[in-house]
Amino acid sequence: MANEYFKEALHNFTSDYAYGSQIRHLYDQGLSIERIKEKLDYPTPIETVYEYLKKYLIDSRIIVFNESDIPSSTKASSYTVEYDSLGRKSFRLQKERGKDMNDLVTRSYLGDITAIPDILNCYAHVDLSIASKNSDILDSKLKDYCCTMPFPKKPCYIRLNPSLLDIVNTLYKAGLWHDVMISPKEGIRYSL
Fold this sequence. Notes:
By secondary structure, this protein is α+β, with helices and mostly antiparallel strands. Helices cover 39% and strands 18% of the residues. The protein has two domains: 2-60; 101-191, no CATH class. The protein has six helices and eight strands; from the N terminus they run αααβββββααβαββ. β2 (78-83) and β3 form a beta hairpin.
C-alpha cells in the first residue's frame, strides 16, 4: 500500500516537473491542445495533455459550475511589524480580502466586452457547445480550439484566456451569447 502511494506521488512529481507547468502556462496563453503538445520540451502523448489539462481546469477552479464557486480575489498582501516583550522584531503576513462573491454589484453592459477592465481574469457564464454548434461564425483556429479542449458540454463559468475571449466576443457580436460576466477583482457582475 505504501509502495503504491510512493509510486503515485513520484509519478505526479516527475510529470509535473516534466510537462505540468508548461501545459498550465501554454493554456493560459490561449494555445490549443495540439499547439501545447508541439511546444512541450518533453514528448507527451496528446491524451496525457488532455487529461492533465482537464484536471488542471477543475482543480484550479478555472471552470466552475456555480457562481458561488468562483474564487474571490485577494488584494495585495502586506506585512505588519510586531515586537514581543523583549523588543524582538517579527513580521506577520496579512492577506487582505478582496470583494466577496456575495456582495457583487450588478451592472448592465452594452459595449465591447474586450473593454471590460481586467477581462482576462473575468469569468464568463457560457455554454461552449453553442460555439461548437455555430462553428461557421468562428475562424478555423477558434473552431479547433473550442472542439478539442476539455470543456464541459453544459453551461459553466470559465475564466477567460485570449482564445476564449475571442470565442465569447465572436458569439456576443453575432448575438448568440448574452449572459453574465463576473469580475471577482472588481466585484462586478456584468449583465450583457
